[in-house]
Write a sequence for this structure.
């Protein structure tokens, strides 16, 4: 088990697009160790996901996982662990939803971003098995956030109204109730 230090905004590695993993390398100890470290680091930090460049690697690997009630995002439905190697994403349909997001690499800040409600995602898992899946709702939002990381983007780049930016305490005080009520209705409508 290895919990790694999380890179934060300002570190240039978060702004560099990651490079695809050579399928030959995927089974090797370096990439497998990276995946184990992502799993451990995400869990220790209570993120809903984590991308390789958030722990200093330039490989196109990310994790999404919500096990039980996530203390940072208690309204998020569970996501069985997804280890995404070389993910490719495309939106399905035109529907968008405004989601309040935070990020382990942007300490103590949250803000509203627009995300596609439904996406198709193709990726390899850690065994090299190909997946081709459709994800919806908050789960689709989490996956878009993680793949943005792999493309060198942060949620800050997608904040539509900078007046929505808030520390976690101020979010709790002034935005949480309204957001959770709206997003709970959304999850009931679209599923996840
Ligand atoms: Ni993030």
């Amino acid at each position: 088990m290895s919990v790694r230090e999380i890179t934060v905004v300002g570190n240039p590695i978060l702004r560099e697009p990651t490079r695809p993993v050579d399928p030959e390398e995927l089974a090797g100890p370096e990439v497998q160790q990276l995946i184990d470290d992502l799993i451990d680091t995400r869990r220790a930090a209570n993120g809903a996901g984590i991308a390789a460049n958030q722990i200093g690697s330039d490989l196109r690997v990310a994790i999404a996982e919500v096990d039980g009630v996530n203390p940072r995002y208690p309204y998020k439905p569970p996501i069985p662990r997804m280890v995404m190697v070389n993910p490719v994403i495309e939106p399905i349909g035109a529907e968008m939803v405004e989601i309040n997001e935070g990020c382990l690499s942007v300490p103590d800040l949250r803000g509203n971003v627009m995300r596609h409600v439904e996406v198709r995602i193709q990726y390899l898992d850690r065994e090299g098995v190909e997946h081709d899946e459709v994800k919806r709702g908050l789960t689709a939002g989490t996956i878009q956030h993680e793949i943005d990381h792999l493309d060198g983007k942060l949620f800050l780049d997608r904040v539509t109204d900078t007046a929505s930016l808030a520390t976690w305490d101020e979010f709790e005080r002034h935005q949480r109730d309204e957001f959770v009520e709206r997003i709970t209705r959304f999850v009931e409508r679209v599923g996840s």
Remarks:
- Residues 29-45 form the longest helix (17 residues).
